[in-house]
UniProtKB/TrEMBL annotation:
PROSITE patterns: HTH_GNTR. It comes from the Bacteria. This is Transcriptional regulator, GntR family. SMART domains: HTH_GNTR. The keyword Chloroplast does not apply. PANTHER family: HTH-TYPE TRANSCRIPTIONAL REPRESSOR PURR-RELATED, LACI-RELATED TRANSCRIPTIONAL REPRESSOR. Gene3D superfamilies: 3.40.50.2300, Winged helix-like DNA-binding domain superfamily/Winged helix DNA-binding domain. The keyword Transcription regulation applies. It holds the Pfam family Peripla_BP_3. InterPro entries: AraR_ligand_bind_dom, LacI/GalR-like_sensor, Peripla_BP_I, Tscrpt_reg_HTH_GntR, WH-like_DNA-bd_sf, WH_DNA-bd_sf. Keywords: DNA-binding, Repressor, Transcription, Transcription regulation. The lineage of its organism: Bacteria, Bacillati, Bacillota, Clostridia, Halanaerobiales. Residues 6-74 form the HTH gntR-type domain. One of its GO terms (molecular function) is DNA-binding transcription factor activity.
Length: 375
């Protein structure tokens, strides 16, 4: 259990808080004396004082000199609700992240309130304001369009100012008020591109999402691998899209198809394509299949997230891992640690190292391939 790992003063504080929230102690009721509390909990006076100090900071109790400690009139009670905002409730890795969050929160008596921003700043703002009204005990958020000038940073700071811990998933800002759980996206982009290079590819394209920080960092890894191997970065091989798959799937699919066709029409067409995520990788494979290209004989593909979809036998796409469920668990644990301590312990950053999972979508290029194609 999460609680067993907590210091004794936090366990005492949590127990007294639970009694207050249950209504067993009413406003202006006097708590047992410090000596009585020491006997009840079997701990030192120092431990009791630390617990009472946190309860006082949280506004649950107040002290009268010479008289003791009393329950406050205006108590901010726990709601046992944690807000979770995702850019999509239908995203193919969303269910794994949610399962990780829920596995931790449920066994500690908390429930999740879901919000779907659809990768839209204004919609996200509405949800954040609603969560502030509902007085959630913590917030986990995957920010919308995080690679752009992010307009809701002040709203997130309001949560922290109200002693509500915030964990940012899959992005990071230059702001030490929040905690962060991310994957090293740049390293992931590097691993994918470098794998192509190790298999003899030099004409390597990339399709990535603009205004999205994880995607931009994956692109940086792509550039890094090419430069370290003295392979030119051709603008014709770089394809960026802005249409969100969460807003209009049909337009998104048409945009990806247009980008793939543009790549095929380049004078020296690519032999490999690194895709921002598995959803794009699968779509690229379907488009190439329809155009009678063989994967990986004609064009190799690598995705990102190592989702369940790319593990299917008839798809079997090489992909870079995303922690998914583990990331959700770590985010939830950070929230509970902050709540239990009564103090916002911000600027904690957990970054997972990605791995490349090889499957059947990358072909080894013969050393004479480029000479043969010049003939």
């Amino acid at each position: 259990m999460h609680t067993n790992r907590l210091p004794k003063y936090i366990q005492v504080k949590n127990n007294i808080e639970k009694i207050i929230n249950s209504g067993q102690l009413k406003p202006r009721d006097k708590l047992p004396t410090e000596s009585e509390l020491c006997e009840i909990y079997g701990v030192s006076r120092h431990t009791i004082r630390k617990a009472l100090n946190i309860l006082e900071q949280d506004g649950l109790v107040y002290k009268k000199q010479g008289l003791g400690t009393f329950c406050s009139d205006n108590q901010k009670k726990k709601t046992y609700n944690i807000g979770f905002i995702s850019i999509s409730l239908h995203d193919y890795i969303f269910s794994d992240i949610l399962a990780g969050i829920d596995s931790v929160l449920h066994k500690n008596g908390y429930q999740i309130i879901l919000g779907n921003s659809k990768d839209d700043h204004y919609r996200e703002k509405e949800i954040l304001n609603e969560f502030l009204k509902k007085d959630v005990d913590g917030l986990i958020i995957e920010p919308a369009k995080s690679g752009y000038a992010y307009p809701n940073i002040n709203l997130l700071e309001r949560f922290v100012d109200n002693n509500i811990p915030v964990v940012i998933l899959d992005s990071d800002f230059d702001n030490n008020k929040f905690n962060y759980v991310t994957v090293n996206d740049q390293q992931g982009g590097y691993l994918a591109t470098n794998h192509f290079i190790e298999e003899g590819h030099e004409n390597i394209a990339v399709i990535y999402k603009g205004l999205h920080k994880p995607s931009i960092n994956r692109f940086k890894g792509y550039e890094q691998a090419l430069k370290e191997n003295n392979i030119p970065v051709y603008n014709d091989y770089i394809k960026k899209y802005y249409i969100s798959e969460f807003e209009n799937l049909q337009n998104f699919e048409q945009e990806i198809k247009s980008l793939v066709i543009e790549l095929l029409e380049v004078d020296k067409s690519p032999t490999a394509i690194f895709c921002f995520n598995d959803q794009v990788a699968i779509l690229v494979k379907e488009i190439l299949d329809d155009l009678n290209y063989q994967i990986p004989e004609d064009i190799s593909i690598i995705g990102f997230d190592d989702s369940k979809l790319v593990r299917l036998r008839h798809i079997s796409i090489t992909s870079v891992t995303h922690p998914k469920m583990i990331a959700g668990e770590r985010a939830a644990n950070i929230i509970l640690e902050n709540i239990d301590s009564g103090v916002i312990d911000s600027n904690k950053k957990i970054t997972f190292a990605p791995k490349l999972i090889e499957r059947d979508s990358v072909n080894e290029i013969n050393k004479n391939y480029y000479l043969d194609n010049l003939a």
